[in-house]
Every structure is written in C-alpha cells, then in structure tokens.
UniProtKB/TrEMBL annotation:
One of its GO terms (biological process) is methylation. This is SAM-dependent methyltransferase. InterPro entries: Methyltransf_11 (IPR013216), SAM-dependent_MTases_sf (IPR029063). Keywords: Methyltransferase, Transferase. Signal peptide: none annotated. It comes from Glycomyces albidus. It holds the Pfam family Methyltransf_11. GO terms for molecular function: S-adenosylmethionine-dependent methyltransferase activity. The keyword Transferase applies.
Amino acid sequence: MAANYTEVFRDPTAVEKYAERTYAPGSFSSIVSSRQAGWLRGFVPHAYRMPPVHHDFACGTGRVARMLAGLVAVSHGYDTSEAMLRKARELGTPGYAHLVTPGYAMPVPDETRPRLVTAFRFALNVDLHLRDQMMDFASAALPDADAGLLLVENHGNASSVRHLRKTFGRLDSASWFQELSHEEMRELFDRHGFDLVGMQGFTLFTQGCYRRPWLWAAKTADSALCSPMSRWATDVVYVARRR
Ligand SMILES: C[S@@+](CC[C@H](N)C(=O)[O-])C[C@H]1O[C@@H](n2cnc3c(N)ncnc32)[C@H](O)[C@@H]1O
C-alpha cells in the first residue's frame, strides 16, 4: 500500500499511465470494466424506480459515470486529484466533477431523488483511515435505508486465485499487492451502519491468465462462471444498504 496514496494520483504521469496503459483497449482492466458496465446497466434500472442521482467517490477518470450514462439523473464525481478530473473531462465524462480536500468530500444534496453511491478501485489499496473517509461520504449521501444503495469495488478479493500470487509468486516492491477479504468489507460496512446485501464478481482469473495462450480460455470461463462464483472472484462489487 502506498503511504502517499492520495499524492500518487496527483501526478500527471500516474494519471496518463492509469488512463492509457491500465485501461488501454483490450487490457485486462478494460475487459473487467466492460463486464462491470454490462452488469451496472442491468442492475440500476432494476434497483431504482426512477433514475437516481449518482455520487462517485474517488471518481478518478470518470470510468463509472461513463458506464452509467443515460441511466442516472446526473453524476457527481469527487476526487482529490485535479489531473484525474482533467482526464475525466478529456474522456467526455458526463455530469459534474468536484475537486475535494482529503476527508472533506460532501455529496451535493438533492432530497428529491434516490441516490446511488459508487466507490470503485479505491478500497483495496488504501488504509483504514481512507476507507473510513469513503464510508463517511457514503453515510452522508445515504442517511437511511430508503435513500439508495452503495456499490464498492474490491479488486483484490483475498479468497480468490489471486491469493496464489501471494503464496507462490514474487512480490516486488514496485507493484502494490494488497488483499481485502469479504469479512473486512463486511466489518467496515457494519461499523458505518451499512448491511452487505449483495456481491457481484467480474473475473475469477487474474491479469496473468489474460495473456496468450490462456486468454481465450480465461475469457470464456470468466464469462460463464464469474457471476455464479462471485464469492471467489478476484474482482468483486459489493452492494450495501444503510440500516
Ligand atoms: C485507482 S483510482 C480509481 C478511480 C476510479 N474510481 C476508477 O475506478 O477508475 C483512485 C482514485 O482515488 C483518488 N483519491 C485518492 N485519495 C483520495 C481521497 N482521500 N478522497 C477522494 N479521492 C481520493 C485518486 O485521486 C484516484 O483518482
């Protein structure tokens, strides 16, 4: 885990790498991202009686707002990195981008509509203090059970094949390697007054399996199995509701 996590993403070089390399067309992350988009676009109209207001904590380049385009009344993205928000604008992200001070992100109030809070690709690599910032934000946006839903991505589920890398692989200091368990997430939700109400997996396999000659087999197996085997997926989105 980077001690200076927030600082890392303020660097335009890290932003370019995130947008152009991590999410390059055809990359492992963009394949997972397009599966997430497909699921979200089915889930949101089903879960809400009217298009909700979307609040995206640590929105970065606006990936989630673009997935939800047309399905929400409006998207508000909140992030501490001006460079990330600039990239989001460049990529044509719909809605509003809010540059925030760490720990001071506050959802734009709108009492007239249900709300959807998302926090993707954030919880895994941050410490408990930043996870608490994420949950404080979610609590402010979702004061009660009827206010809407919280969706949090964990892209390093501890009970997945990714764990083998920790057991047998070489972990160099240049690449972050964290794991986050369902129990840790459940405990975090519970401490902030949320119940875990669902879990959706997006890949059973890791980036390494998405290389030739295994690429085709990994993609095919994931398309069929990552949803029914969500609990063991490497990349998971939790659905939580305020108690
Ligand atoms: C890995 S990126 C994820 C971006 C986006 N959610 C996605 O899934 O593509 C993590 C983001 O968290 C933001 N961030 C870091 N510390 C933060 C904090 N304390 N509050 C809000 N955002 C923060 C970074 O600037 C960066 O944009």
